[in-house]
Amino acid sequence: MAQNDLEARHLETLDRDLGRFSNLEVATGYISRPLVAPGIAFVFILLAGLVAAVLLGHSNNVMIVVVAAIFGAYMALNIGANDVANNMGPAVGANALTMGGAIIIAAVFESAGALIAGGDVVTTISRGIVAPESIGTQATFIWAMMAALLSSALWVNLATWIGAPVSTTHSVVGGVMGAGIAAAGFGAVNWGNVTTIAASWVISPLLGGAIAAAFLWFIKSQIVYRDDKIAAARLWVPVLVGIMAGTFSSYLALKGLRQLIEVTLTGSLLIGLGIGIATWLIMIPVIRRQSEGAENRNKSLKPLFGIPLVVSAAMLSFAHGANDVANAVGPLAAIVEAAQSGAVTENVSIPLWVMLIGAFGISFGLFLFGPKLIRMVGSQITKLNPMRAFCVALSAALTVIVASGMGLPVSSTHIAVGAIFGVGFFREWDAERRLRKARVAMPVEDQLGPEERRRRKLVRRTHVTTIATAWVVTLPAAAVLSAIIFLGLNAISG
User: Fold this and answer.
1) How far apart are CA 380 and CA 383, in angstroms?
2) How high is the pLDDT of residue 263?
């Protein structure tokens, strides 16, 4: 009996020890899980440096190029984590795409846009912010570009961590400006261009929000609030999809494919008009077939916007990859050119291996870190459905066309997020308007008080404050950080 008791106690002790090991494994899993994504990102960054070392091993200043490639890969990862959410967030928030589907589509089209239409030549001094000749020597120029690249990447990384979608273009501009000031003084900066960019902080979101709200008002007034919703949808949805197809065709011709073929604004609009009319005619029988047997209620309208929304997200990703890859690899290409040739020029060619770092970095950043911002953009600012998300996507493309015609430099991030705000605030206004009409016939005791109406706001004010603050701070924060990094690099090299 004593022997049996002893064995039982040993078994209990063994069970407790095994339980501790099991708990330890679970705890280790929770601890290590957050480190998986940074670990993969770290390996990608090291591979980028290794590629630069292998390809340029016999060149001058190879270590400078390797470090620059590492910084460029880091920036590309952050662009993927932050910027791409603007394209995919509305589709995911409207449940037109799953998170996995959005990541796959975005990765494919971002990479395709970067590699096919990413551009052989970019203005490496970020659209005339700083004159190259004012910076001085080759070494000073390299350190300035290095500081701009690292500071903008660090700022976008911080913004992603706090959950604020910011403009990577403005981050790079701020980085170049700060390094230019540190290197050559305030006179090196083209303050006229900086003022125009600052003005776009206000213009981009307001224009995007107004256009998105206008389309949502049209959909509600002409389809949702009609007695026969299905008949109204058969009439107007093909028109709306045609407008979307025409707008995206013009957008891609003007912004995404400009390096393959030379297209003027007028030419892009004519291309868009032709494709838009063709799409409208094709969609008439398609929408009729989709809506057969549908009930006369709002839920039946949502599937009609699903496929156009997915296509629009893909097209936005393609155009984004074509345009914004330069934010990651433009300064890197400038460093490679200056390190190899010793020349400091405003326009440089981007080697294929540099473009690959940008394209794959954006895709990896989206896959590893993008879901956080996609969820925030897609569902945490305001509730989206396919119709609202369609208005956001259409507004993003249309606003770029309008701004290009006006000669305004705009941010795709500000436009997309501004469009979401516009949709949300329009919903609040429309709900309040309908409530006022209903209140006329409602007994006084059943009417909602001011506190209850505030509680029912459809846009989260905390996100408005956080995002607006991040937008305003982006350029000066990146500039100050860049200046500090440049002075440190210059001191080390000197």
Assistant:
1) 7
2) 76
